[in-house]
């Protein structure tokens, strides 16, 4: 059931995970590579931050800023000429902050072989000019969404208590 709350004089309704999902793709170009011919970690980090930021903005329906990168795991290299796809999904929404998970898939275009070279979890804060702003509640529907929501909720509570 969707719920509506007031936020700075405007109604904010709860949102489902699927409403803010982001899918994006790019090809690894030579200018994105290190001397070994593989994608710079920083270039991938920027793409992850953009996809996650778009997802957070869709959920909040207002500008957001990156508060932290909880983790960013580089599992395997991605070579020049290969395709990269990112899938960003909301995991948790507190009062003004939210957690977004990003799964990265690489594809070797000649064989079609795909694998997961990177995963990331980022936290964003919704902004109203220079102040944090309230955001909609997140409504997880599937078992997977509920499990990720519960894990993210525990991380949020640990951060609030001052523990990693």
Entry keywords:
164 residues, elongated, Thiol Ester Dehydrase, Chain A, alpha+beta, six-stranded antiparallel sheet, two-stranded antiparallel ribbon, 10 strands, 2 helices
> By CATH's scheme, which homologous superfamily applies?
Hotdog Thioesterase
Count of DSSP-assigned helices: 2
The CATH architecture would be Roll
- Report the portion of residues in β strands: 35-45%
Arithmetic mean of pLDDT: 92
Distance between the amino and carboxyl termini: 33 Å
| Helix-strand pattern | EEEEHEEEEEEH
CATH class, anyone?
A: Alpha Beta
What structural category characterises the helix and strand content? alpha+beta
Gyration radius (Cα, Å) is 17 Å
**What best-fitting shape do the alpha-carbon axes yield?**
elongated
Poorly predicted tracts of residues: none
Q: Write down the domain tally.
A: 1
The major sheet is characterized as: 6 strands, antiparallel
Q: Give helix % range.
A: 10-25%
Q: Predict the CATH topology.
A: Thiol Ester Dehydrase, Chain A
Tell me how many strands there are: 10
Describe the protein's architecture and organization:
With 164 residues, the protein is α+β, with helices and mostly antiparallel strands. It has helices at residues 41-60, 143-160; strands at 4-7, 10-13, 15-16, 22-27, 64-74, 83-93, 97-108, 113-128, 131-132, 138-139. Strands 4, 5, 6, 7, 8 and 9 form a six-stranded antiparallel β-sheet that branches. It has a two-stranded antiparallel ribbon with strand order 1-2. The two termini are 33 Å apart.
């Amino acid at each position: 059931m969707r719920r509506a709350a007031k936020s700075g004089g405007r109604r904010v309704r709860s949102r489902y995970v699927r409403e803010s999902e982001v899918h994006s793709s790019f090809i690894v170009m030579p200018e994105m590579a290190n001397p070994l011919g593989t994608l710079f970690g920083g270039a991938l980090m920027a793409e992850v931050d953009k996809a996650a930021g778009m997802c957070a903005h869709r959920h909040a329906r207002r500008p957001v800023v990156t508060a932290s990168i909880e983790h960013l795991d580089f599992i395997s290299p991605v070579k020049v000429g290969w395709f990269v796809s990112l899938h960003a999904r909301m995991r948790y929404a507190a009062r003004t902050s939210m957690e977004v998970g990003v799964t990265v898939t690489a594809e070797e275009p000649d064989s079609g072989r795909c694998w997961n070279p990177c995963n990331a979890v980022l936290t964003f804060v919704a902004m109203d000019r220079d102040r944090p702003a309230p955001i909609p509640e997140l409504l997880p529907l599937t078992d997977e969404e509920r499990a990720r929501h519960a894990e993210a909720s525990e991380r949020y509570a640990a951060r609030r208590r001052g523990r990693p």
